[in-house]
């Protein structure tokens, strides 16, 4: 590859930046929406698997197994292209967020379940001996400690969601990757826009990683005190 080709690639990357940076908030929005909606779902699934009746535990375990055992892309296709055959039609944004939420909920539930199980049973028994009921024990004793344990994994899940949002481009959501594809369709130069998209993904992920580390340090100081 000669110098002129590199100049062409760099110029196309720079030229694509204004278009791609406008799509970055959409990518971040999808990831945050899936995370915020997925966390309550994950908590419900985790508590169901730990303390729910046997039929519900089995149903929750089946949900987690199915989501973790199938590709996210297939899940997106099932929701966006498959549900209309059952009479349920979703627009691309709703379908994409729903697929990402269901996926995140399954993975986060395992993180939360493991974090809850890591809290020593003696703390449960001590809280019960003080007259607290199960809800109070979970709310006041277990979940605050489990949140500290789960934070690093949840931060990693959010970073993963940012990258997973690229898959909703297949259902015409104009997020970061789809914007790069639209630029390429006009310029017929693929490397530059894809390179710029990769750099923006990298920047977002690195920024989230810094936020995650900052939160971990604050929690560590709080525990030390």
TrEMBL record:
Region forming the signal peptide: none
InterPro entries linked: AA_ABC_transptr_permease_3TM, ArtM/GltK/GlnP/TcyL/YhdX-like, MetI-like, MetI-like_sf
Family, per entry: Belongs to the binding-protein-dependent transport system permease family.
Source domain of life: Bacteria
Gene Ontology biological process terms from the UniProt entry: amino acid transport
Transmembrane segments: 20-47, 59-83, 89-108, 191-211
Key words of the record: Amino-acid transport, Cell membrane, Membrane, Transmembrane, Transmembrane helix, Transport
Membrane topology type: Multi-pass membrane protein
CDD domains xref list: TM_PBP2
A GO CC annotation given for this chain: ATP-binding cassette (ABC) transporter complex
GO molecular function: transmembrane transporter activity
Subcellular location: Cell membrane
PROSITE patterns, per the entry: ABC_TM1 (PS50928)
Keyword flag Nuclease: no
Protein name: Amino acid ABC transporter permease
Domain ABC transmembrane type-1 positions: 24-212
């Amino acid at each position: 590859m000669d110098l002129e080709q590199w100049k062409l690639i760099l110029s196309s990357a720079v030229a694509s930046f204004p278009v791609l940076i406008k799509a970055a908030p959409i990518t971040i929005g999808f990831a945050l929406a899936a995370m915020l909606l997925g966390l309550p779902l994950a908590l419900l699934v985790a508590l169901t698997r730990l303390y729910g009746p046997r039929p519900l535990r089995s149903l929750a375990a089946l949900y987690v197994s199915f989501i973790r055992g199938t590709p996210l892309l297939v899940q997106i296709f099932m929701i966006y292209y498959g549900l209309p055959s059952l009479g349920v039609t979703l627009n691309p944004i709703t379908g994409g967020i729903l697929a990402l939420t269901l996926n995140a909920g399954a993975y986060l539930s395992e993180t939360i379940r493991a974090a809850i199980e890591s809290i020593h049973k003696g703390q449960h028994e001590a809280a019960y001996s003080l007259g607290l009921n199960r809800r109070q024990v979970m709310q006041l004793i277990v979940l605050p400690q489990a949140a500290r344990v789960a934070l690093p994994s949840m931060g990693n899940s959010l970073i993963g969601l940012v990258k997973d949002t690229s898959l909703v481009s297949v259902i015409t959501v104009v997020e970061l990757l789809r914007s790069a594809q639209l630029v390429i369709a006009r310029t017929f130069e693929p490397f530059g826009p894809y390179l710029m998209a990769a750099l923006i993904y990298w920047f977002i992920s690195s920024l989230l990683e810094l936020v995650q580390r900052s939160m971990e340090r604050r929690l560590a100081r709080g525990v030390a005190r």
